[in-house]
Queue: 2 jobs
Job 1
Amino acid sequence: MNKNGALPNDRVALDAYEVENLFPTWSYLPEKAPLRVVSAKGVRFTTEDGRERLDFSSCFVSHNIGHQDPRVIEAVTRQLNQLASFAPTFSTEPRALLAKLLELITPGDLTRSFISLGGTEANEAAIKIALQYTGRRRIISRYRTYHGDTAAAMGVSVGDFRSWPQETGAGEVTRVPQPYCYRCMFGQKYPECGMRCVKYIDEVIELEGGGEKFAAIIAEPVTGANGIIVPPKEYFPLLRELCDRRGILLIADEVMSGFGRTGKWFAMEHWDVVPDILSMSKGITSGYVPLGATIVRKHIGDHFKDHFFSHGATYAGHALGCAAALAVIPIYESDGLIENSRVLGAYLLDRARELQDRHPSIGDVRGLGLFVGLELVKNRETREPMLGVDFKIRRGSNPKTALAQRLAELGMMAVTANPSNVVALAPPLIVTKDEIDEGIAIMDEALAVTDAYVEN
């Protein structure tokens, strides 16, 4: 520090702090600092080198309304000047208003919310509520899924390398397959399969003691980080019926898929299914202030009138985050962003399929709304994955990191840091047709990198 207490903040100093003083996320300690972002606006961001780049990831599927919307900045500033936060044993106006607004925009009789600081915490609360409400200890989760980085959320993140070093904190977890039609674990083809993946879950429940042994099934409606897996239309209605018949709660993790990302307020609405518990984050504030929420059906919330609710946090219902959400949520409707996601999502999917026609490294293209995935393969005929499940925890470069580097050189960021073989295209919901064309053109050029790894 210098004599007035300020730290040096030149480029060399900042790079040194990044390397010497920080833990990165899901990575080895870096040898050099990453690109430094200095500003962002709309669907673009600017790095310290003065270069403007296209954000085709919405910052890991969070900045749905785009960067630096003045309406949100004004609302957050106004709340900050009035009351930044207060102890959760007291009420604040933003918290009370947001709780009611969440009831109004979510499907069915989802009514009572616990407001936290992010998606991980939202899923942590969802799991605790399910365990406390049912008095049971077992949770069913699906392979190739990620629900967060705290104990219970990590415990139900199965088939994801991030869970391997962790101990479960979610009671007892039973693992079942995804409805992953491109790589069906039962060797079936849809629709001739008869939804074997749901029948399997039913068999597992029966063979492990029946529904009274299980508190809940947790599932992402559209699997995010592990592959943009869109289920067949019958999947969630059948899963809802199974849960009702077995007396098991259905938890929908809508942290990524919520708030218009798939062309509906929430992805479960595509199948007219109301979950018992719905967790949300990311799009609730579009990343302007960290926030998450867990909303439950009325009868589940009412249970805790006579039973102690054993969960809480110092920053629960944080006033600044709630104010940000109250500014962001109306924008989805006033600016037509959910409809834009539906219409331009279909356009993005069509353009992505054109990439598949030109690039042998793309084995499958799938998506819903502005949430489209390109699955990378070594061999399109055999569907051999481009990378192993453990590639993220192995040192050294690989085809996917090479693709990320090439995209950076060309001036774009997509979702390439996720653990699957899938590259996700998830631009902000404000994206235009011209910007989609621009992103597809950049991706078209960059995919030459992964094509070089294809086995003839």
Job 2
Amino acid sequence: MKIPRLFSSSACDMAIDLGTVNTVIYVRNRGIVLNEPSVLAVETRDGIRRVKVVGDAAKLMMGKTPAGIEAIRPLRDGVIADLDIAEQMIKHFVDRALDGGRFARRHEIVVCVPVGSTMVERRALRDAASNAGASRVRMIEEPMAAAIGAGLPVTEPRGAMVVDIGGGTTEVAVLSLNGIAYSGSARVGGDRLDETIASYVRRAHNLMIGEATSERIKCEIGAATLPDGEGQRITVKGRDLVNGRPAEVFITEAEIAQALSEPVGQIKAAVLAALEQTAPELSADIIDEGITLTGGGALLARLDEALTDATGLPVKVAEAPLTCVAMGAGQALEHAAYEAVLVNL
């Protein structure tokens, strides 16, 4: 009797974008099945660490955990910082993506890696994926996956530029013929934007705020260019550094845009550096194709306008920037045309 494809091994092959902020999983023939924060809540008892919750539930606990429980993000700058915890997180997410693992125990996993990651960092990712039940682990560099997910013509003899702004890093790449003609990386991303906002609020308003509040400010009024006048205003709550009591202040869009000028400037510098290093024929293609932004950082208001002003080129945000990398890795897994972009380790 023929085994239905749903229950075959290949039906459970998957691509994982293991990001600093979010983990996104694409399963063959099913598309994106999981998109959750890369966070675990770990309880320590008698010297033994046990995972309590993972993903959305763990993120809600950040900054609010009692003694003995810690909310941990096991990745920093796109690479594993805590191998044991990262392995447990990957196993949890893979089991959830496969509906508790009831379809297949062994499967191929394609893992997305930062283009500037070292062999040691890549092997850590490979080992973590293998221990999560993978029979085969292959890798794809994040800018290439992002470009495929954004629908750029990476298999053609035509240059395309992608700027992938993740939680820990910004990766800039020029791609052509299933390869990366130029790549560069800057240690600036969504986390750096959050840290900059928290630092500004502490310095300008004597108010201590947590990660969740910084992220909310970024999402609600964060911008890459100054608005006309003050722009929007929001109320921010935290701890007053002068008297130690809870307090709230008003913060304007103009303040945050000014505070973010330094990290946004680093993103601009990385893009300009890439353009300076790009071959003339590829540069000519980029004039027509423009620059495509992917990753969560691409959602920063008016970032495309800021980059257009800096480069003089058309800049667009991908249709689904948060899931572009996972989508692209999944398409590379499914389609033979992209076989050349997958690397065995």
